[in-house]
Specification:
Layout (H helix, E strand, L loop, with lengths): L1 H11 L7 H37 L8 E4 L2 H10 L9 E5 L3 E2 L4 E3 L4 E6 L9 E3 L7 E3 L3 E10 L9 E3 L12 E10 L2 E2 L5 E3 L3 E4 L3 E3 L2 E2 L12 E3 L4 E4 L3 E3 L2 E4 L3 E3 L2 E5 L2 E3 L2 E5 L3 E4 L2 E5 L2 E3 L2 E4 L3 E4 L3 E5 L2 E3 L2 E5 L3 E4 L2 E5 L2 E3 L2 E4 L3 E4 L5 E6 L2 E3 L2 E5 L3 E3 L3 E5 L4 E3 L2 E2 L9 E3 L7 E3 L4 E3 L43 E7 L6 E7 L4 E3 L3 H4 L6 E7 L8 E2 L4 E3 L4 E9 L1 E7 L8 E5 L5 E2 L3 H4 L6 E7 L8 E2 L4 E2 L6 E9 L6 H32 L1
Parallel strand pairs: 1-2, 2-5, 3-6, 4-7, 5-8, 6-8, 7-9, 8-10, 9-12, 10-13, 10-14, 11-15, 12-16, 13-17, 14-18, 16-20, 17-21, 18-22, 19-23, 20-24, 21-25, 22-26, 23-27, 24-28, 25-29, 26-30, 27-31, 28-32, 29-33, 30-34, 31-35, 32-36, 33-37, 34-38, 35-39, 36-40, 37-41, 38-42, 39-43, 40-44, ...
Antiparallel strand pairs: 47-48, 49-52, 50-51, 50-53, 54-55, 56-59, 57-58, 57-60
């Protein structure tokens, strides 16, 4: 077929080949040539295959596992490591604590795993860095840290791990460290004391980075106590714990480049400047399924996003962080924050205890969805969120502000404080819940409507611009204060309302926080001695001037009930709990009796299975009511002994007297005869 096509094409070019036999001959000739060409091709391919197999095939290097007991063995093992396959690294197992005399350098292309031949799970073997030197450096190589401790001796300086040289062809290509398990602790350097990711990739899957210090803490360049990730680096923290680290900026983590944080605990880190837990700059970070707690800083106790950073937070908890100035939980400076399905609670600072947005010379924004912001406390402004004049807040569906507060008399905005008097920088969804938020002063909002402020509930009044929920910028109105006085007990509280909205719902003892040992709560009275007007919980109390309600107490009593126990009579004797010593009374004193029976004693059980008491016994410090049951004895069952003796004698005497009398009569008759 192939030859026929060629002939036809050639014929079109001016050759007249029409003889069939000639066509067949040409086909056969070409067929023989093609067979020869095929044989030659197969021979060449076979030769090439053999050549490639024998000469060109790369040699496979088998990874090794080496146990090391001292520095010399460790250095030899590292020098001899030759694997370049990340799936099949050379494994070096520490069988002892090893002190380095210089930085341990992982050479380019090497793939090594450092493991601990554990002396115990809680005390893995240590690789101890030399004073003033980084313990391990990784340049264009891969190091897996699995179970060892990387540290320095207390009082000495030196970083834990450095990743990457100064110049690299692309971001994150300067080397790779995979922190699988173990401990990087007690290291000190000017920045990145635990791990300094200069130009490489740092992946943390587990383990602990703790108690590292970027020093001095007064130096603004001391950044990243636990981890410092530069703009040319990639850092992924996918597990483990970062705790107890210190720096001027980013006590736990400082990152300028790509940084992803997922499934991590970031706890008790400290920064003298910015970002106690995390300090992020000029890039994008996603934080998910992470707990950021108990961190401390001047600004941004938990997290600080700075310099046009984009921070995405989802399914995370930001809890119990503190700041000296702004942003106990989160501080956003000229950055964008997006929060979903998270909790921001119990953070503390003067302004923006939960979140503080500062647009500064640029612009800051926060978009929040399906998140609870609760129990945050600011001294002055914005218990939940503070929004400055160059910032915008978007509250989407599913957000609740609960029990946030400001505590200073000059403050406001228990849930939200905005510096824009028109509230134009607030965009709040109609499903938003405001509940239990507080500020020292409450204000009734003016009749102005705010279409950009939606809500489904408020802490007080009918609109959240009441200073408890959102700070009030209108003209201040007169207030009245209702004080709840414990009146000899402990506790009490005050409630402040506008004089134009002065109907108070009277609180219960629990809501007012009052109690008194040995007394029951009865109600409230406008006078301490109970001579005024009584009020009960949930009553409506309207006042025009500051007023005090005093608790009415009733002292708790304890009693002894004297029970006749099938007899008749009995009384109840009661005494106050403060004078609760009793003297047991007699049956005559309490007037009990039972026909045909004699009183025996008292008992705490009707069947006398309890404790016996006799008249005159003491019962001291009685704390609860008791019942004493009379115990009876039938007279016929146990007659008196003297009765047994006297009765027969009387009968005998009567019988004897009768005999004597009969005998005398008989003699008298005989004498008459």
């Amino acid at each position: 077929m192939m030859i026929s096509i060629i002939i036809r094409i050639t014929a079109k070019d001016g050759y007249d080949i029409v003889n069939k036999s000639r066509i067949i001959q040409i086909r056969m000739k070409w067929s023989r040539k093609m067979k020869t060409a095929n044989k030659l091709f197969k021979t060449c391919m076979a030769t090439l295959f053999v050549f490639t197999f024998l000469i060109g095939k790369p040699k496979m290097i088998k990874a090794t596992t080496t146990e090391v007991y001292n520095l010399t063995e460790l250095l030899n093992a590292v020098d001899n490591a030759s694997s370049t396959d990340e799936a099949n690294p050379d494994i070096i197992i520490l069988k002892n604590d090893i002190s380095l005399t210089a930085t341990l350098q992982i050479k380019p292309t090497q793939v090594i795993t450092l493991k601990s031949g554990h002396q115990s799970e809680d005390a893995p073997y240590k690789l101890i860095g030399a004073n003033g030197s980084t313990a391990i450096r990784v340049d264009f190589a891969t190091l897996n840290i699995d179970g060892i401790t990387i540290t320095h001796i207390s009082g000495q300086s030196g970083r834990g791990v450095t990743i990457g040289p100064a110049i690299v062809p692309s971001v994150g290509s300067g080397g790779k460290v995979n922190f699988i398990s173990g401990l990087i602790t007690a290291n000190t350097d000017t920045h990145g004391a635990g791990v300094y990711n200069y130009t490489g990739t740092f992946n943390m899957y587990g383990g602990v980075i703790s108690n590292n210090t970027a020093a001095p803490l007064s130096n603004a360049n001391s950044q990243g106590g636990g981890v410092n990730s530069s703009i040319e680096a990639i850092t992924n923290i996918y597990g483990g714990t970062v705790e107890g680290n210190q720096a001027y900026g980013g006590g736990g983590i400082y990152a300028r480049g790509v940084c992803n944080i997922e499934g991590v605990i970031i706890d008790d880190n400290y920064a003298t400047g910015f970002g106690g837990g995390i300090y992020l700059r000029s890039s994008t970070t996603t934080i998910s399924n992470t707990t950021i707690t108990n961190n401390h800083a001047n600004r941004g106790g938990g997290v600080l996003a700075d310099d046009n950073h984009i921070l995405n937070i989802t399914e995370s908890i930001i809890l119990d962080n503190t700041a000296i100035n702004y942003g106990g939980g989160i501080y956003s400076n000229i950055s964008t924050v997006n929060i979903q399905n998270s909790e921001i609670s119990r953070n503390v600072c003067p302004t923006g205890a939960g979140i503080s947005l500062n647009g500064g010379t640029g612009f800051a924004s926060a978009t929040i969805s399906n998140t609870i912001i609760k129990e945050n406390t600011a001294t002055y402004y914005g218990g939940g969120i503070h929004v400055n004049s160059a910032s915008v807040l978007y509250i989407n569906a599913g957000v609740s502000f609960v029990d946030n507060q400001t505590t200073n008399t000059g403050g406001g905005g228990g849930a939200i404080y905005t510096e824009v008097i028109t509230y134009a920088n607030l965009n709040i969804d109609g499903s938003t819940i405001f509940k239990g938020n507080k500020s020292v002063r409450a204000f009734k909002p003016a009749s102005t409507t705010y279409p950009n402020i939606g809500f489904s509930s408020t802490s007080i009044d009918t609109h959240p611009v009441n200073n408890y929920d959102i700070n009030y910028w209108g003209t201040l109105q007169a207030e009245v204060i209702l004080t709840y006085d414990a009146n000899g007990g402990v506790g009490g509280t005050t409630v402040t309302k506008l004089i134009s909205d002065n109907d108070f719902i009277v609180l219960s003892a629990v809501d007012a926080g009052v109690s008194r040992a040995g007394y029951n709560f009865i109600g409230w009275n406008t006078e301490a001695d109970g001579s005024g007007t009584d009020y009960s919980p949930d009553d409506i109390f309207n006042i025009l001037v500051n007023t005090t309600l005093y608790v009415v107490w009733s002292e708790i009593e304890v009693s002894i009930t004297y029970d006749a126990n099938t007899g008749v009579g009995g009384i109840v004797v009661s005494r106050p709990l403060s004078d609760n010593d009793f003297i047991v009374l007699s049956d005559i004193d309490v007037g009990v009796s039972l026909a045909g029976h004699k009183f025996v004693c008292w008992n705490t059980e009707a069947d006398r299975s309890g404790i016996d008491y006799n008249a005159g016994d003491s019962i001291l410090d009685l704390q609860t009511d008791i019942v004493l049951f009379a115990q009876w004895q039938e007279l016929s069952q146990n007659p008196d002994t003297k009765d047994i003796i006297v009765l027969p004698i009387i009968i005998l005497m009567l019988f004897t007297a009768t005999i004597i009398k009969v005998t005398k009569r008989k003699k008298a008759l005989i004498s008459k005869l």
